[in-house]
Design brief:
The chain is about 80% helix and about 0% strand. The protein is mainly alpha-helical and about 150 residues long. Helix 1 (about 10-25) packs antiparallel against helix 2, helix 1 (about 10-25) runs antiparallel to helix 4 (about 50-80) and helix 5 (about 85-110) packs antiparallel against helix 6 (about 120-150).
Length: about 150
């Protein structure tokens, strides 16, 4: 069971559904079944509303996603400026932990004499977690370095 919010329960989803329902009630109903911003953008593109309305809705999605990314970046900057060792090192520690667990599970799963097998669900979960952690860590570090470079 996943604790992940449905798209229509997220801030972006609520904003999008409210605006879409006001612009075109039929489009609001179509968008109620989408599960991600990408699907919402696709459905908006397919809808039979004016191009101006399509552009407005798409801009709202992009602006909200940018705000969420900026808030994450500001939290990470605050963590890196903190005097706490743990807050400064939590991202690298999570990255190392994920790599160790993922590697160990892969090795154990590949040895025939060891009765350990990764289920399909766990394999997908590990893959998504690893991708998110690696992209967040290296993407965040690249952004931090680029920002500090351009400020100089």
């Amino acid at each position: 069971m996943s604790n992940k919010k449905k798209f229509k329960e997220t801030t972006v989803g609520k904003l999008l559904f409210g605006a879409a329902s006001m612009i075109n009630p039929t489009l609001g109903k179509v968008l109620s079944g989408v599960s991600s911003p990408q699907e919402a953008l696709s459905e908006i593109g397919k809808s039979k509303i004016s191009n101006d309305d399509k552009i407005k809705l798409q801009q709202m999605i992009y602006e909200q996603q940018n705000k969420e990314i900026e808030s994450i970046t500001s939290r990470w900057k605050a963590d890196s400026m903190s005097d706490s060792w743990l807050s400064k090192n939590v991202r690298p520690l999570v990255l190392v932990w994920c790599i160790v667990v993922f590697s160990l599970a892969g090795i154990l799963d590949s040895i025939e004499s060891v009765p350990f097998h990764i289920g399909v669900t766990w394999n997908d979960t590990f893959e998504k977690v690893m991708m998110a952690v690696v992209l967040a860590y290296f993407g965040g570090r690249t952004t931090e370095k680029a920002t500090s470079f351009f400020k100089k």
